[in-house]
Input
Amino acid sequence: MEVSNKRIILTGAAGGMGGILARELAARGARLILVDANAEALNALAGELEGATAVVGNLSTYQGCEAVAAEALETLDGGVDLLINLAGLNSFAAFEDEDPARIELLMHVNVLAPMWLTRALLPTMQRQGVGRIVNVGSIFGSIGFAYFTTYSASKFALRGFSEALRRELHDSGIKVTYIAPRAVKTPMNDDKVMRMGAATKMNMDSPEDVVKKIIAAINNDRKDIYFGFPESLFVRINVMFPRLVDKALAAQNRIARKFAKSND
Ligand SMILES: NC(=O)c1ccc[n+]([C@@H]2O[C@H](COP(=O)([O-])OP(=O)(O)OC[C@H]3O[C@@H](n4cnc5c(N)ncnc54)[C@H](OP(=O)(O)O)[C@@H]3O)[C@@H](O)[C@H]2O)c1
Output
């Protein structure tokens, strides 16, 4: 699906990747509904871009997602070509230290919000006979990463949702794309994660590069895409030989633990 001139709902639009993606889509003539909880940043972005409307909303609740979907559809005169589920939250912590409320919030924003929004918009796409849902996951949705346990669990769930829905919608004219970036330099990764990433030599991409690849994946009708080498190879090895990956990550896990448990 060419993104040019499409009606697009983009969540997480005020975030590190979201702002860049919104600008690229606007430059291609898309009619954009930009969704985020960060009202100030979202309104500033929408004000800059032709054809963009800000919909400030909280995606951590079912009611919030329903309200966003209803407002978006009304603004787009009842139709939508593309839903990009980009909003997400991260958590870097030893699992015993993870706040139960944070686990719940993360699962709501990373898993349930894409499901609730898709559920709300699917009947419209089915009536149209055409549409696309793009779910932005992570390499951590295929390789469970120590100290990103909650985040990994959420992205595994999002990948499973994407795969099952893609199969369910086969022949419907509605396509599903699952996108799995490796680490990206955005505000999602706080100072502690950045220091751990440097200590473990974690590969990190620029958000501009990732956004280019997301647009290419949509334009080229990709079912799924995993970014970066050797990470994309490790995704395959982890399916067939997970014990090899256990061993390969052991040293990295020990370093990550020090950062996850430290108070600075
Ligand atoms: N950065 C990476 O290393 C990386 C790697 C692989 C995949 N990804 C995935 O890529 C996507 C975008 O990440 P990013 O790096 O651009 O993150 P980001 O800069 O933190 O942006 C995420 C955006 O989502 C918004 N958001 C969070 N909770 C929300 C809620 N309840 N309702 C509405 N909006 C909410 C945030 O708003 P607030 O600022 O108000 O919280 C923020 O604007 C995420 O799904 C992430 O998991 C990121």
Observations:
- The chain has nine helices and seven strands.
